[in-house]
Amino acid sequence: VYLKRLEIQGFKSFADKTNLEFNPGITLVVGPNGSGKSNIADAIRWVLGEQSVKSLRGGKMEDVIFAGSDKRRPLGMSEVSLTIDNSSGIFPLEFNEVTVTRRLYRSGESDYLINRVPCRLKDVHELFMDTGVGREGFSIIGQGKVDEILSAKPEERRGLLEEAAGIVKYRHRKREAVRKLEDTEASLIRLSDIISELS
Length: 199
Ligand code: ATP
Fold this sequence. Notes:
It comes from Thermanaerosceptrum fracticalcis. The structure is a single chain. This protein is 34% helix and 19% strand. By secondary structure, it is an alpha+beta fold. A hairpin with an 8-residue loop joins strand 1 and strand 2 (18-21).
């Protein structure tokens, strides 16, 4: 999977609109401590639908919105867009590029878009499931993560391997199908109760 572009505006320390173009190969980000290098990885994780504020190094989700500085007032919205090359057709979409966007307002309102079309968080998750780019995937390895993987329990490590192998999507769909079956069974029981009351 080739990440082509990351556009950040109002996310953490990135108050101004910032466009990062990634060329094929390896990209290094260098800068002094606290200059915002890790915030770039956080932005990628966030746009992929990360819901854990802890893994985004914040206390509440609102903390991802630029909180102001000596010279600038806080912003009301954070927006991140990640563009991925789709010329190999890794995503089942008829586009050569796929852009995922996430927005969050201080009011708590949030939007997800795929190629500028509003969608649900679920759609973003499903799009990335099994591409190896998932928010739980091994593609973003934060500080301390290597130790964590090495000392992970066998079943946690197996989760990583399963995502890499591409079976997480099916496991997820199976869980959803089982849940729907259970709901339907519960409805059937309720219906037969009503029928026996009526007859
Ligand atoms: P290190 O090398 O120490 O890991 P880094 O370059 O990875 O540093 P980051 O952790 O990415 O730095 O950035 C931290 C900076 O981002 C801090 O200066 C912090 O004040 C700023 N920051 C984080 N959240 C916000 C926010 N919501 N609004 C404004 N600035 C923020």
